[in-house]
Design brief:
Length: 433
């Protein structure tokens, strides 16, 4: 039976690269009906941060990745924290001792390599031949085991069938194959997935790079489904080049043979686009519920709030910008964007605002269709484009040049609020002429 694992070290935050590695293991396990194991590699106690374990567990759950065995779940192959597996490491060390595969030097224990070529039959990269030339430390002089030893022991003891990990571990594979063979256990199949590069492609994305931590997206109210969808595409894609896909469809299609060998470049703009698409396509009831839980207390009637949120859904990029995006709907004392104003001046906005105000005061039908017809007639009469009215009036009503559909905004705000704001704008903007 297929058994895969994600084995992070709790030494910091939940990096986007680690999340992608966990996701590929999770997807493959679900694709073939196997077992996904979470194992915490916390043997390096000097670097260990207790809270980081909770960050990893919480981050994985936020992304919708459950695990079949591991912390808080249990299983038949535990413990699932390396710091609790010292007895197991001692047993495997004895195996190597009986085979004369280890020796001590300066207090450290070294593994004696065979110096024979090792074949890593990688499921993504194909056959890779490597030869380990030097013996290497498996226990430090202070008695603590090193990564290579505990990693292989845990994979062997937990009967891991497939090791899916980042390409940067490919260089370790010959050491690990030597150890598997020395223990006399089957060597798992390897699949080394491409690295995630910085947006500019200059190198591997690190935890110090902007957008590299899962926590940043949680804090900025990105949708976990959108981030998870985007991570699926960092090194893998369906053969029909689709991008926005339900996770059930990704699971159905995901296979290791379709993972690219080339490194994947992180694209924050594409991620933002995908998140906006997920926000736009949320069921309205769900969108309203989530939005209202995040809104500031604007002290206005619920019906008006619902109307505002409904017309803003299609333009909202993330829930992190929600309060700013809708604030002017509820605040009569909003500020005008002076930078945007100077770009508008060539359209003669004060004149257009005044003409629009006069037309509104003489319009009984306040439907989107009639408002659009009204603006078209105004523009035709003046020999200008409708955009000259739309941009100027939008600025007068919101202090901005972007927002939801102009005509929807007019209808939702209503005649009284529109009239009041246009009159205020004529007074305030006159000072900027």
């Amino acid at each position: 039976m297929l058994r895969v694992r994600f084995a992070p070290s709790p030494t910091g935050f939940f990096h986007i690269g680690g999340a992608r590695t966990a996701l590929f293991n999770w997807l493959y396990a679900h694709h073939v009906g196997g077992t996904f194991i979470l194992r915490i590699e916390d043997t390096d106690q000097e670097r260990h941060i207790e809270e980081a374990t909770n960050v990893i567990l919480s981050g994985m759950r936020w992304l919708g990745m459950d695990w079949d065995e591991g912390p808080e779940v249990g299983g038949n192959y535990g413990p699932y924290f390396q710091s609790q597996r010292n007895g197991i490491y001692g047993e495997y060390l004895e195996i190597l001792g009986k085979k004369d595969k280890i020796y001590e030097r300066d207090g450290a224990i070294y593994f004696r390599v065979s110096r024979e070529p090792q074949l890593i039959d990688d499921l993504i990269r194909g056959p890779v031949h490597r030869t380990e030339e030097k013996d290497f430390v498996i226990f430090r002089s202070n008695g603590t085991p090193v990564f290579h030893f505990v990693n292989v022991v845990d994979d062997a003891a937990m009967e891991i069938s497939h090791v899916i990990r980042g390409e940067d571990h490919l260089s370790n594979s010959s050491k690990h194959v030597e150890l598997f063979k020395a223990f006399g256990v089957p060597v798992p199949k390897f699949a080394h997935i491409p690295l995630i590069l910085k947006t500019n492609g200059s190198g591997k994305m690190s935890k110090r790079d902007v957008g590299a931590l899962v926590e940043d997206y949680r804090r900025n109210q990105f949708l976990p489904e959108a981030l998870r969808n985007y991570l699926c595409l960092l090194g893998w894609s369906p053969k029909d080049d689709r991008e926005i896909m339900p996770i059930e469809e990704v699971i159905r299609l995901f296979d290791l043979c379709d993972i690219n060998k080339n490194n994947a470049r992180f694209d924050d703009k594409k991620l933002a686009y995908m998140n906006a698409a997920y926000v736009k396509n949320m069921p309205l009831e769900q969108f309203l519920e989530r939005s209202k839980s995040l809104l500031s207390d604007f002290n206005v009637e619920t019906h008006y709030v619902d109307q505002v949120l409904t017309i803003c859904q299609e333009k909202l990029r993330s829930f992190g910008e929600l309060n700013h995006f809708v604030s002017y709907f509820f605040d009569e004392n909003f500020d005008y964007d002076k930078g945007a104003w100077f770009d508008l001046k060539k359209r003669d906005p004060i004149l257009r605002i005044g003409e629009f105000l006069s037309a509104i005061e003489n319009t009984e039908d306040f439907s989107e269709q009639k408002l659009e017809e009204m603006v078209s007639k105004l523009a035709e009469a003046q020999g200008i484009k409708t955009g000259d009215y739309i941009h100027g009036v939008r600025f007068a009503l919101s202090g901005r040049t972007v927002g939801p559909s102009f005509y929807k905004m007019i209808v939702v705000m209503g005649r009284e609020r529109i009239t009041r704001r246009l009159r205020r704008a004529l007074v305030e903007l006159e000072k900027w002429q």
